[in-house]
Design goal:
By secondary structure, the chain is α/β, with parallel strands linked by helices. The protein contains 21 helices and 14 strands. The strands form 2 sheets. It has an 8-stranded mixed β-sheet with strand order 3-2-1-4-5-6-7-8, with helices on both faces. It has a 6-stranded parallel β-sheet with strand order 11-10-9-12-13-14. Helix 13 (283-306) crosses helix 14 (335-344). The protein binds nicotinamide-adenine-dinucleotide (NAD). The site of nicotinamide-adenine-dinucleotide has 27 residues, from helix 1 and helix 5.
């Protein structure tokens, strides 16, 4: 089976590499010439654990190639995937479908033989139907079906997620199209992955509903963490107890500075717009979005309070700026809200992130980039943990404290034990835990007044 993957970003590259590893013949297309050239030269343009090895293996086997040329790839393909970005549209919060539709216009004239055009991009309900209409308009004679096959992989564990999915959704109203899609996923079906054939509308909506639910879980535990601080409970004990209920589940019950990333913020925003337009508003999810926006901002007075009520003239080391560990993705990361606010209030910010510098240099102007955690902490008044990279857990707290000018640590990911941090000489603030109640939330509220 021949596959053409339009868009070679986090999703297109991982999906393309995994499909070629199943044995299919995959050509990844991208309009970014530099990206294609670097892929052809054996360089991986994104950080995703295991991806370099997977790409190298399948390139060497002759099953995976890269091009900028749609015209030579699409006619050969049994399936053309659309894996281009669907960012939040400026101004109104809808999904921006301009990349999807321009890819559709580009492929339409080149369809030959029966072809399944499949969206892997996250797209609002009705997009498959609109793609079909546009393809038909440009190429009325073409023989094709349009399917929705949303992707649920997570950056940082993308290959494992792709090859061991909780489910594969195939939304296709055409029997021939569904048969092609089922054949594509046969290697996963043989490993007992649930392959679910649903309507295109259900597939499209399910992806948004899943992300909205996960975002809700994060906002939920963040608010519970606030209650814990107010009443002296420990959010980790609460989350553990709650999460052991099989109906709830323990994942996504980790409090922090609010969710970010390339998916949750834009997908929450898009499903809210879709639902309003359909006159079935999602008031619960609208509140989730508000809670999260406020959450990120609320971290700043919290840090300010930990530093005695002012940031002016203070020096702060921020450890971790990517939206989560094991990725270089900075899109909508909480750091993009928090760091500029620290700077506006007069703080000098030193940053260390194992992978964040490449994109972060442009997105976080005015910060000083450090070589590692200890370098970042040298001569600062406070260390703030923003992303829970594993290497931060291994930091020698005593050494960290020794190189600092001050003694404050604000751990917004709860990666350390309060006792350990205090034993190393820190005044330690974390989220939703008893030691935080004394120095953290109550004080932060006072400072904000
Ligand atoms: P990305 O920005 O990393 O990659 C998109 C790629 O598409 C870019 O390389 C861009 O140059 C290319 N592109 C755009 N228009 C093109 C065209 N006309 N022809 C060829 N290439 C083109 O985006 P991503 O993170 O991979 O996300 C892609 C889609 O998958 C989005 O809809 C996203 O919501 C969804 N998704 C993302 C994730 C994730 O974790 N990143 C997970 C699940 C779903």
């Amino acid at each position: 089976m021949k596959i053409c993957m339009i868009g070679s970003g986090y999703v297109g590259l991982v999906s393309g590499a995994c499909f070629s590893d199943f044995g299919w013949d995959v050509t990844c297309v991208d309009k970014d010439v530099a990206k294609v050239e670097s892929l052809r030269a054996g360089e991986v343009p994104i950080y995703e654990p295991g991806l370099d090895e997977l790409l190298a293996r399948n390139i060497a086997a002759g099953r995976l190639s890269f091009t900028t040329d749609v015209a030579s790839t699409v006619p050969e393909a049994d399936i053309v995937f659309l894996a281009v970005g669907t960012p939040m549209r400026r101004g109104d919060g809808y999904a921006d479908l301009s990349y999807v539709y321009s890819a559709v216009e580009e492929i339409a004239p080149h369809l030959r033989g029966f072809t399944v055009i499949t969206t892997k991009s996250t797209v609002p309900v009705g997009t498959s139907r609109e793609i079909e209409r546009r393809l038909r308009k440009v190429n009325p004679a073409a023989d094709f079906a349009v399917a929705s096959n949303p992707e649920f992989l997570r950056e940082g564990s993308a290959i494992q997620d792709f090859t061991h999915p909780d489910r594969v959704l195939i939304g296709c109203d055409d029997e021939r199209g569904e048969a092609v899609m089922r054949r594509l996923y046969q290697p996963l079906a043989l490993r007992n992955a649930p392959i679910m054939a649903v309507s295109r509308e259900s597939a499209e909506l399910a992806k948004y509903a899943a992300n909205a639910f996960l975002a809700m879980k994060i906002s939920f535990i963040n608010e519970i963490a606030d209650v814990c601080e107010a009443v002296g409970a420990n959010v980790q004990e609460v989350a553990d107890a709650v999460g052991r209920d099989g109906r709830i589940g323990g994942k996504f019950l980790h409090p922090g500075p609010g969710y970010g990333g390339s998916c949750f913020p834009k997908d929450v925003s898009a499903i809210i717009r879709t639902a309003r337009e359909a006159r079935a508003p999602l008031s619960l999810i609208e509140q989730v979005q508000r809670v999260n926006d406020e959450r990120k901002i609320a971290m700043v007075p919290r840090i300010e309070a930990a530093l005695g009520g002012t940031l002016d003239g203070k020096s702060i080391a921020v450890l971790g700026v990517t939206f989560k560990p094991n990725t270089d993705d900075m899109r909508e990361a909480p750091s993009l809200t928090i760091v500029p606010m620290l700077q506006e209030r007069g703080a000098a910010v030193r940053v260390y992130d194992p992978q964040g510098r490449l994109h972060g240099e442009e997105m976080l102007p005015g910060v000083t980039w450090a070589r590692d955690g200890v370098d970042a902490a040298t001569d600062v008044d406070a260390v703030v943990i923003l992303t829970e990279w594993n290497e931060f857990r291994a930091l020698d707290l005593a050494r960290l404290r020794q190189v600092m000018r001050g003694d404050v640590m604000v751990d917004l990911r709860n990666i350390f034990k309060g006792d350990d941090a205090e034993a190393a000489g820190f005044r330690y603030d974390s989220i939703g835990r008893p030691n935080a109640a004394a120095t953290g939330h109550a004080a932060a509220e006072e400072a904000a007044e």
